[in-house]
Write a structure and sequence with these properties.
Chain lengths: ~325, ~300
């Protein structure tokens, strides 16, 4: 065998002299690896986002808590971070958040559940085909528009029934927020109910149950954890909702559990501070990160519980 | 006789059961109608309120201290430019991540972390993204309250939507397509590039449109990064009057929802009318985008038969 015949051999040769075909293969492999690495980096951006959120909130909050004792932050009953006599009692903002969320859920949970039961167990395919996009549209309306709606339509309407209601109130913000959350609750609940196997329904029908009995006594109990998960995600939406409360609930901090009063929530406080002109690094600037960290911890806890519940009901069947 | 009584009893029970069925169906329909009615009242109220203001001038004038002269020129231009940045960032990242998770990712803890993380991110309140942007984009990177900061923030916000849509679209493609392509000697990337991506394009597109519709209505994160509310100028046009090709991305800006928020929070009624008109335009924009997505999904679902 001569040197020449080795290089002609397209199946490869001794080390150092690679055939064009193998070289092409190697290049192809290399390119494939590169692309895979690139795609992995794109997927990793979402992890970086989470790390970024935690980093920013924790970093600024640590500086904040060097000025303010954590005990005061959690127990003080006044929230006046921008006054000379500054108090930082997050309870004040949490109370506003809780009241507006409670009002919202009082609307969203019953209405959302009834819609879900209706769509999953009663409605014909045609009704469902029309209703679901409409609900999706309702969920897609910008929240600032809902805020305008609460301020301009719902508050005047409520004032006719309750003349003492002020122009800004947690009640009207909460009610509109509830309408906004209905699609989230109904679509997740409906998914949970549709995941209930047909055989359970057929069994109940064979025993002579009516539709309502099947829905309430078979399907709803079987989908309980899914329903609970949808409620919890609804709560997390309500807690994190910003523009509706910023527009319609007024922004003055107010430790109250009366929905007829105006009050600030965690989110609307952040908006209020961001609208002003606070210098970077000032204590006022730092408070919004402490408030944001509180908000993130609340919603994260809710989300984890919700996900855990959904996983549980998925494993069921 | 006894037999007849029993039948009558059974009939009564059935009738009662049916009555409850009808009653519940009626309640269900009322709840649905309640949702529909809200949409109608909301859009109708804003449309009627803002009808007088909805002229061509409204779209071609800057905001002004005099409500009757104020318009949304800087707001809609700002919205379009921010969406441009958002789309440029979110589409490659979201589609790339979706392709990776469906086609490449091995079942291991890294993949698990990424997946759990995406589900969690989807439920983080939007204002928290605003704080992230304030800390990272505005101060750490020094982008300031610019179109670039806003566009990137909204891109991160809609990333989970794009990723989930991409994954669902890819998952709907039968495995035989991949096997066929690979049997002919295509590499993984060639399979993705020439088969997976084209077939899943309708689903991905739907997800992108829904994500952008969500982004265009977001207010809170943009307020947080300190976007000005009174902007009476447009970002510099590229390559005009000495401006560079990308100078506009660093320009201060305002967007539709911020303009609307600004007008809503003014006490004068004339500005509330402006807010109604701006809200109407905003809702038409988002509903239009959502309708396009729903139509696209419906149409393309009908056409594809595996």
């Amino acid at each position: 065998m001569t040197e020449n015949s080795v290089t002609d051999n397209s199946w490869g040769g001794p080390a150092g002299r690679v055939s064009p075909r193998l070289a092409k293969n190697a290049l192809r492999n290399w390119r494939e690896r590169l692309i895979e690495g690139l795609l992995f980096c794109m997927a990793a951006v979402s992890v970086l986002t989470t790390l970024g959120i935690v980093y920013v909130l924790v970093k600024e909050s640590i500086i904040f808590f060097q000025h303010v004792r954590i005990v005061d932050f959690l127990t003080d009953t006044r929230w006046t971070p921008l006054f000379d006599d500054a108090h930082y009692g997050i309870l004040v903002l949490i109370s506003g958040t809780l009241v507006s969320s409670a009002v919202a859920l009082a609307v969203a949970i019953p209405v959302g559940t009834i819609i879900a039961i209706y769509l999953s167990e009663f409605a014909t395919a045609r009704v469902r085909e029309v209703a679901k996009p409409i609900l999706e549209v309702l969920g897609g309306i910008p929240t600032i528009v809902f805020g305008y709606f609460a301020l301009m339509v719902v508050t005047p309407l409520l004032q006719r029934v309750l003349p003492e209601l002020p122009g800004f109130s947690l009640l009207s913000a909460g009610l509109v927020m509830g309408v906004m959350i209905v699609p989230y609750v109904s679509s997740l609940s409906e998914d949970a109910m549709r995941a209930v196997p047909m055989s359970l329904r057929e069994g109940a029908y064979a025993m002579g149950s009516t539709r309502l009995q099947v829905a309430l006594k078979v399907v709803v109990p079987a989908a309980t954890s899914g329903l609970a998960a949808s409620y919890i995600l609804g709560i997390s939406r309500a807690v994190g909702e910003t523009m509706i409360v910023a527009v319609a609930a007024g922004m003055q901090p107010n430790l109250t559990f009366n929905p007829m009063e105006p009050a600030a929530t965690i989110t609307s406080f952040i908006v209020q501070v961001a609208l002003g002109d606070l210098p970077h690094g000032s204590i006022g600037y730092l408070t919004i990160f402490a408030a944001g960290l509180t908000l993130l911890l609340i919603t994260l806890t809710l989300n984890v519980i919700g996900l855990w519940m959904r996983k549980k009901y998925r494993e069921h069947y | 006789m006894v037999q007849q009584d029993k039948t009558a009893d059974i009939h009564a029970v059935i009738r009662r059961g049916k009555r409850w069925d009808y009653l519940f169906a009626a309640i269900g329909l009322i709840c649905l109608a309640f949702g529909l009615l809200t949409v109608l009242v909301l859009v109708g109220k804003m449309g009627l309120e803002g009808l007088d203001r909805l002229s061509l001038d409204f779209f071609t004038s800057y905001p002004s201290r005099r409500a009757a002269n104020a318009g949304i020129l800087s707001a809609w231009v700002g919205s379009v430019l921010v969406m441009l940045v958002t789309a440029f960032a979110a589409v490659p990242l979201g589609v790339g991540a979706g392709v990776y998770l469906e086609e490449y990712a091995k079942k291991n803890w890294v993949t698990d972390i990424i997946e759990i993380n995406i589900t969690n991110l989807a439920a983080v309140p939007s204002i928290v993204y605003g704080l992230l942007a304030l800390g990272i984009f505005v101060y750490q990177f020094g982008f300031g309250g610019s179109i670039l900061s806003a566009g990137l923030t909204l891109a991160l916000l809609i990333l989970p939507i794009v990723i989930v849509a991409t994954r669902e679209a890819i998952r709907a493609i039968p495995g035989a397509m991949r096997e066929g392509s690979m049997a002919l000697g295509a590499t993984k990337w060639q399979t993705v590039r020439y088969h997976i991506l084209p077939y899943s394009m309708p689903g991905i597109l739907t997800g992108i449109i829904i994500g952008l519709a969500r982004a265009i209505g977001e207010t809170a994160p943009i307020i947080t990064i300190g976007a000005l509310t009174f902007i009476a100028f447009l970002p510099p046009l590229p390559l005009v009057e000495g401006a560079g090709l990308f100078d506009w991305v660093m320009s201060p800006f305002t967007v539709m929802p911020i303009q609307m928020f600004n007008w809503t929070s003014r006490p004068e009624e004339a500005f509330q009318i402006n807010a109604g008109a701006a809200g109407f335009v905003l809702v038409v924009m988002t509903l239009g985008m959502n309708a396009l997505a729903i139509w696209l999904r419906y149409r393309l679902r009908k056409n594809i038969k595996w």
